[in-house]
Structure formats: C-alpha cells, structure tokens
Amino acid sequence: MLFQIQISRMKTSNVIWVGNYSTVVKRDPVLHWSWKSELPLECATHFVRMRSRVDDAKIPEPRFWSNWSSWKEADAQKSLGRDPLFLFPKDKLVEEGSNVTICYISRNQQDNISCYLEGQQIHGEQLDSNVSAFKLNKVSFIRKTGTNIFCKVDQKDVIKGIVLFVSKVLEEPKDFSCETQDFKTLMCTWDPGTDTSLPKRSSQSYTLFESFSGKKILCEHKNSCNWQVDSDSQEMYNFTLMAENALGNRSVSVLFSLTHRVHPKTPYNLFLKNVSGTKATVTWKVHPIGNYSTLLCQLDLLGEGNVIQQHNVSIKENGEYLLSELEPDTEYMARVRCADANHFWKWSGSISQKFVTAEAAPSEALDVWRNVKSVSGHPTVTLFWKPLSKLHANGKILSYNVIVENLDRPSRLEVHSVPATANGTELTLDQYSYQIHVTALNSAGPSPASVIVVSGDPGNEEAEEERINGTEDGFSVSWKPQSRKAIGYVVEWCDHPQDLPCDLQWKNLSSNTTSTVISSGAFRPGVRYNFRIYEISTERMANLLEKKAGYLKELAPSDNPQVVVSNLTSHSFTLSWKDYSTDSQPGFIQGYYVYLRSKAEKECHPGFKKATLSDKSACCQHRIDNPEQKTFVMENLQPESVYEFLVTPYTSAGSGPVDTFTKVTTPDEYSHILIRIILPMIICVLLIMITCYLKSQWMKEKCYPDIPDPYKSNVLSLIKSKENPHLTIMNVSDCVPDAIEVIHKPEGSKIQFLGASKSLTETEFTKPAYLYLLPAEKNYSGPGPCICFENLTYNEAAADSGSCGHFPVTPQAPPSQPGPLTSPENLLKALEKNYMNSLGEIAAGEASVNYVSQLASQMSGDKDGLPTNPPEPVHCSEYKMQMAIPLGLASPPPAENSGLSSTTPLDQSEHYR
Amino acid sequence: MSCQLAILCLLTLLLPLLSRGAPMSPAERITQAYNLALSMQENMSTLLQTYLQAQGSPFSDPGFSAPELQLSSLPPADISFKTWNALDDGERLSRVQGAFLALSQHLQLVGDDQRDLNPDNPILLAQLRDARLRAQGMLGNVAAIMTALGLPNPRAEDTVGLVPFGASAFEQKCRGYIVIREYGQWTDRAVRDLALFKAKYPL
To answer: Bias regions of kind Polar residues — which residues (chain A) (predicted)?
Structure first.
C-alpha cells in the first residue's frame, strides 16, 4: 500500500508537508510512521490526514487513491500547565552547524518577552498572538554542558529557559587498517577524530563488520578493535567500520589479504658477543609467524646517534651477524627490527643494545710543538701537544712519554712520563742539541712517536716583523721559503696574547705550502696578534722564518697617553709621553694628534690647524705622523696665559677619545729675570752680612776702634803731606791736664739734646767754665806745656774755638741729679757719681784702659753682647777733646774720666755721618 | 591537599555525632554547631560562584541573581524579625532542623543533576558533596542540641519526593541555583539562631 500523508500547521488549509509512505500491509496491521517537525510541536497545532492506494505490481492499472481521512489535530499546548511562559524544545540535541527553530508560548498577550542566547538577545517571528518562533542558523558548539537560551517576561521576574545541546560533527574514522602478528588475531586501528560525546547523551560508538563472514562486533574502544581469526581458510577480509552517535553515522571500509598484513612482534634476546677493537657479533631471536614464514630483519649499527652500517638478514627464528670495521674504544648501538620477508607490511618494533669496542694503540703521532727560552742560563724547552682525537686515541690515554736524546754527546736517554691530563711539559736542557720523542700511551700500547729536535742554542730568533690585515675568515699568512730542505712549516701564535699564559697555538703546514689562513674563534677585533713562521728542517729543527703582526680589525685607541709637561717657560712648554707603548694598542698607532686651545688666542699656531670637537668647541690640532715621536714642544705661546692641550693617538680606525684637556698656565715674562738677579743679590748680601758679623771685631779694630790710634790716622798723613810736615802727635805723657772746662748750660736747653745735634753749634756753649786742676798757674791762658790738637773726626766748630788746653765738658747731667753744676762741689759730686756708674757699666777688660774716649762705652758694651744698661738715646754728638790721662794723677781724674764717658753716649750712626 | 584538609576538618566537626563517648553539655553542643555553621558560611560564596560559572549564561553572567526563582519543596529562610524573635527554643531549632533536612536531600538531588550536566567538573561535584555533608552535620548537631535541651525531636521527612524528576536541563540548573542560594540563606539564619542559643546557654 502506498499512503499519502499531508501535514498542516495552525490551520488545516496551511499544508506544510506532503509525503508518501509505502509498506506491505498484512493482516491486523498497526502501522507506525513518524515525522519530525522542524518547529517544536508544542509551538503550534498541527493537523495530519492521509489517503491510500494499492501499490502492487500484480494489480493492474488504474489504481485509485482513497478519500482523504479526516484531519487529526495534534495540539501539545493543551497539556501544558499554567505557567506564564514556556520555551520549546527542551534539551534538544543538534549537530554543530545545523539550523534549529525554537519558540516560546506566553499565556498573556500583554507580556513583553525578550529572549537571549548566551547573553545575546535574539529576535524571532510571531506565529500567533501567544507564540513566537526563533530560527537559529548554523548553531555553534560552545560547551559540552549545552547552550542556554532563556526568555523573561519584563516587569514580572519570570524566567524560562532551555538548553540546546550542540554536538560536534561526527567524523569519518581516519587511518583505518588491520594487521596480525600471529595469524590468530587481527588488530584494527583508526583515528576517531573529534569526540562528539555530550553529558546526558551516549557517546559515539564503533562497529566492525566483515562482509565475507557476515560477522559484526561492537568495538570496546574508540580507536581500536580486535578481530579473532577463526581459521586459516579465510584469506581475504572486507572490513567496514561504522561510527555512530545520536545524530548520525559515518563508515569506512578496507579490503585486504591476511598474509599482506603481517606485523611481526618485536625481536628479543639481542646480545653482543666476541667484541674486539674492530669486530663484534650480534645475535637475536624473533617470534615465529606461521610455519613457513620468513622474516627479513634489519640490523643497524649506530654511532653517536647516526646509522653507520645497515645490514639485512633473513631468518626464521634466530638471527646472527658479524659486525666489522668498527673503531676501537667506541660506543655503538646495535638495533634490530624485522618484517615479513614475502609481503612487506610494517617493520616490527625495534630492540637495541649498546656496546663498546675494545681499546687499541693510538693510531697517530701527537702534534707536538715547542717553545725554547733561557731560564738562568739554561735553555728551557716547553713542549706542547694537542690531545689525540677520539678517532686516533683508540682508548683512554693513560700518560705521555717524553724521551730526550742528546745528539751532540752520546748519553743515556732521559725518559719523562707526563700525566694524561697534561698537554705539555717543560724540560731544562744544556747547550746541546736534543732529539725529543713524544708518544701517547693507552692500555693497548703507545702511539707512533712524534719527533722534534731542539738546539740548546736558540740561535737567531729575530726577524723583521711585517704587518698583515685580518679578515672575517682570519689572517692570511704567507712566507718565502728560505731553503729547499724544509719538510714543513709551522705557524705559531697566541689566541690570547694579552693573557698569561697566552694560549699558544700552532698550525703545521706541508713543505709545499707558502701561505695559509689562520682562523680562530678566539680572535677578537682590537687585539694585536703576532704570528711566527718556522721552517722545519730535515733534521726536524724549527728555524724562525718570518714574523707577522696584525689585527682582525683595527680599532681606535681607547685611552690617551699620560703626558708630562716640562720646560715650562712664558712662551713654550714641552709635552712628552715616552711611557706610551704603541705595541699594546687596539690598532697600529700611526701617529698622534696634539690639540691645543686657549681663550687668549683665536688663531692657531703654525703647524696647527683648526678643528672642531664633538662638543662643537673649536681648538687647534697638530698631527704627528711618526708613532715613535713621543715629545712635542709647544712654542710661541703668550706669557701668563692658560692653555689646554690633549694628546691622542690615532690608528687607521680613528683617534682616541678627545675629552679631557690638561691646563697649563705660562708664567710671567720677567719673573725669570727677577729670579736670576734678585736671588744672587740676596745671597750676596747675606754672605756679606755673615762675613761682617764673623769679622766684626777685626772690622772694628780696623775701621772704628774704641780708641783710635792717631798714628794710624789717615788724616794725619793727609795733614802731614799737605799742610804741616812738622806736625806731630801728642804724647800722652807729655800732656798734663790742668783744667776742666765746665760748660754752664741752662736747664731748659736740655730738651734740645734729645733731638738735634744742630743746636750744639749754635747756642749751648755760650759760657764755657774752666776748672783748673793745676794750682801753680792760675791764669794760664796761652800755650803751655799742654799740647792742643784738633780732632777732625769730631765737631769742627768746637775745635775751632781756640780754647786749647780746655776740656769742654758735656753739659749733660743725669736725670737723677737735676741740680746745677755751677759750683765745683756739685760738679765733683756729679763726676764722682758718674764715675762710679761708669765702672759698673764698662767691662772688666776695658776698665783697665787708661784712655778715656769720647766714644760711648755703650758701644763696647753692645758689641760684647753684655749690655748692663739699656741703650739710651743719643743726646748729642758734640766735640770732645781727646786726651791721655796718666794713672798716677790725683783722685779727681777717675771722676773726670767717668764723667766724660758716662755723659757722652754716642750713637753709632753719628760716627758714620 | 586542601580538599583533604577540608574533609579532615569536617570529620572533626562531625565526630561528636559518630562517637558515643562522654555526653556533652548543651552549651558545648551549641558551640560545636555554631562553629560548623560558621564554617559553612565561609564556604558558601565559593560554592555558589563555582556552581554559577559551570552553568553558562545567564547564570555565569556577572551579578546574576534571580530571587523570583523559588522551590516549593524548600522552606523559605526569610522570616520577619518579630516572628523570629518570638520563636521558642523548640520551634527555632526544629525549623533549622527541617530546613537542613530538606537542604541535604536537595543537595543530593543537585549533585546528581550536575553529575549529568557537568561530569567533567570534579571541583563543583566535590563542593556539592561537601555542602551536603555539612548540611547533614548541621542536622545532627541541631538534633543533639534538642536532645540535650530536652526538646522533642521531630521525625525526619522525605521532602524531595515532591520534586519533579522530569525537569529539563535548564530547570535543573535553576533548581541547583535555588538550592544553593537557600542553603546559604539558611546557613546565615542558623548562625544567627545558634548565636542566640550560645548567648542563652553560655559555656
């Protein structure tokens, strides 16, 4: 029968779907047919009707449709409760990307309802006054716990929602394949892809169906399934794997022959036997596959992770292979895997085993080099060698043997054993030639010897140094062979020339080589590398051929020399930096720049040119092109000026830092002259003063004795020669004093003596009074036995008075005796008193002298350094007659003498006037 | 580690229920129940936050609150102060007991719901289990207080029987929210009730 079904929505006339359903109708038939509505049935009333027709080929045409049945109404809303709001469908499961229609049913038309999907408001289509539908296109997977959609009635706090469970799309299983390891079980595996399982929903399932046998099994796992092989009869298999979940299914098939799907089990019992330095035997076992199967096994030999050898071996059950061409003392790994020899499908799993070959004697001689130096007169040879590579060591080096043989004088060989950790040794030798053999030892034996000949006499180790330029690749070093007997060359350098030790390196080169490129990871820009090229003679002796020096890249100097300023004059000074080493700089020093700047001078000196510094300031620059010229004289400078200078070296890469200038101030132009004149003068004066002081007594005797000797007076000789040749010197014994001249002097004039000697000649001696000491001649007025003389060294005015024989007495009275000296009694008293004072003042030696001088006794007291009284100011320098007073005279003379001496203290300056 | 520590603390609080050792005084039982209520109060906000975050929008939206959602099978915690103040000891304790009886059963239901809806969220499931155990602990503590005070102990009733089992996922999420919310409110009320008893029956 064929049934035609019509479905209407909302009203019968609104047919939304028409379809046919054909089935065989039996007796008492209850037929079931279902239809899925896109719109939840709760959202609208649906109607359904049908008609039928015979659909049997046996029944001839025409076949007529029956009448339509009556409409059957399906109204789910009637069964809903009284809630104000409903949302449908509830908990619907859909596939990601599909379209879904939801609806809400409101009991109150007045309610304003808004709906949201994960917080975003959605807008729908109103189906009738109470129902609105929302069509969600291509829904996306948000989370496994479902997508919440909810509606709420505004102002009423009514909230209703549904959860839409969106499932990931079920994928077709990938990489589906089956294989067997033992012809008993087939293991089928696949990649299930995305997991579509959801909470409250059953997960995806996998079913394996074999079409030839018609068997079907439900797989326990999502990515594998085991199929039991029943018998050997079935060779071909056609498997269909079907993935299924609540929303659909996917399937994939594979057709294969069982013998072509053999995947052997991993081999076992892999062993290494008879391992020597170069050979080893490998044995292993496999699980047998069937009775006639042969396995192809692949044996790999790995060293340091790389496959060195690969061998294929066909076996039934036991495998064996002899590995050869192995390196001694090397760790290897043997690895075996197997596959079906007839129909290769897959390699089995691998089994591996590590082993180490036995040691063998080192295969190569050491690379040895030497450095000869003289220590305390003995040539000392430092031997260096490079450790043997693992390839050539053939085992663990235990020690090095150094055998020293004297070539000039047969003697016993010296054998030195050097620990394996050392890469060299030091030997102290004599002035002979020695042949040195160096070998490396391991447990299997020594290496071939490395021979080097060293002469005790270092010979000429000097050679002209040549400059070379470095490149990114290193230094290109070339040389000119000196002899044809060279068996090779060695280039020697230090990787770290600034350090100690400098990490000596060397490179051996063959005899037909005349150039090489020296490269090292240690080379740095701005470091000077020195290369020495040695020629190795047939006697294995090294002779220095050439020396090279170069920089990988020259840099500008980083420091400036320490400059010393010398010979500073008002117009020049000298700069010198002799301590500056040009060899240890970051480039070849080509010369120096001398910068000079001064505020006083705007123009540059000859030889200088103007330059602008980095701080935009201007200065003068002079270039010195000779790196060995380390002095410079700044000339033509201004006196008393401040100059700033800077000396900076320069290389091909630039000059040193121009930053810190040094200030120099030129001195005054005359200062040096003053120093040259004044200093000697001061020294001369000082010398004279010292001499005068030391010879003061002599000078005094010569120039101004306390009692001048008239015979020695120059005046006398002068008078004698010019005026009166008969004039003689008075003899003291001839002179008999007879009178004392007393000068009456008013008291008021006393003050004048204090200041000026001028008053002496004008007013003081108005009335001389004479005291006659000789009573026999009372009125003696003319020349008598007393001889008068003129003392021209004293007051001439007084001498000219003509009062010969009279002794003018200084009209000075001590302050302690203010009384007038007019009466003889008073005078005598005064004299007596003064005499007594004078005795106390005069030194003992001088007190015995019988001359009384007008010169102040004070002077002698001063010069002797024994002053008894403080020096008194000179009151006058008046004339005083000199006379000799005999000791045998009456008692008054001492009083007279004392009075004279005590009352006439003269300032020294007065005498020189 | 923290989970184990929490269970250890919980067991410490529940231990008096299990042990039949020396009888405790009413004041000691009240203090014990009060401490348990405080512990429940401390964990409340975490439980609610964890629950809402696991349900998706609108539950996980910031500041989500739906006071209109109610569950008839749960006694409301809201009560006027006058009524609450006028409650006698027996009535006060029996209301707390009734509420936590219903809450413990509802928390079991919510735990089952979430095991379906959020099977991959062990933190949420563990917190729901802990909340249920605490509710049961409170139930026991209150019963012990009533016994100690010589108050009649009403017989336990099955309250969840009234809950519709055919709830949709969204309804389950809403139901869980209401249960946890009410659990919090009843915890607050229990703290207040027990503080009153603590003052009334000092140690």
So the answer is: 898-907
Q: B66 contacts in A (CB within 8 Å)?
A: 157, 159
Q: Does residue A861 sit at the B interface (CB-CB below 8 Å)?
A: no
**pLDDT score of A727:** 59
- What percent of chain B stands above pLDDT 90? 61
pLDDT of the residue at A600: 76
**Measured between CB atoms, does A116 come within 8 Å of chain B?**
yes
Interface of A with B in 179-238 (CB under 8 A): 199-200
pLDDT at B10 over 70: no
Its CATH class, for the domain covering A367-551, is mainly beta
Which of A485, A398, A491, A488 is closest to A446 using CA atoms? A398
Query: What is the residue range of B135's domain?
Result: 3-16+27-200
Tell me which residue in B66, B69, B169 faces A163 most closely, judged by beta carbons: B169
Q: Do A163 and B59 touch (CB under 8 A)?
A: no
Instruction: Output the domain CATH number for residue B93.
Output: 1.20.1250.10
Place of tokens 């000429």: A460
The answer to whether A743 and A809 are in contact (CB under 8 A) is yes
Any domain includes B67: yes
Q: What is the pLDDT of residues A459-502, one digit of tens each?
A: 666 778 899 988 888 999 999 888 778 899 999 999 998 888 88
| Domain count within chain B | 1
C-alpha separations of A405 from A412, A414, A456, A536, A673 in Å: 7, 7, 12, 19, 76
Whether A737 contacts chain B with CB within 8 A: no
Q: CB burial class (10 A; 0-12, 13-18, 19+) of residue A612?
A: exposed
- Pairing mode of beta strands A93-95, A158-167: parallel
- The residues that bridge with A106 in the sheet, in sequence order, are A85
Q: Is A93 on the interface with B (CB under 8 A)?
A: no
Average confidence score pLDDT of chain A: 79
Residues of B with CB below 8 A from A163's CB?
Answer: 168-170, 173
Instruction: Give the 3-state secondary structure of A784-821.
Output: CCCCCCCCCCCCHHHHCCCCCCCCECCCCCCCCCCCCC
**Inter-chain contact B61–A119, Cβ cutoff 8 Å?**
yes
Nearest CA in chain B to A115: B58
Write down the CATH superfamily of domain A85-167: Immunoglobulins (2.60.40.10)
Q: What is the interface pTM, i.e. ipTM, of the complex?
A: 0.81
Q: Is the pTM of this model over 0.90?
A: no
Closest partner residue to B116 (CB to CB) among A147, A158, A200 is: A200
- Which residue of chain B comes nearest to A161, CA vs CA? B170
Chain A positions touching B124 (Cβ under 8 A) are: none
CATH topology for the A268-357 domain = Immunoglobulin-like (2.60.40)
Q: How far is B68 from chain A (nearest CA, A)?
A: 6
In degrees and rounded to multiples of 5, residue A133 shows phi and psi of: -115, 145
CB-based contact (8 Å) between B54 and chain A?
yes
Q: Is residue B22 part of a domain?
A: no
Whether A174-260 shares its CATH topology with A367-551 is answered: yes
Best residue in A118, A141, A148, A202 for a mutation probing chain B (most B CBs within 10 Å): A148
CATH architecture designation of domain A174-260 = Sandwich (2.60)
Of the two residues A678 and B186, the one the predictor is more confident about is: B186
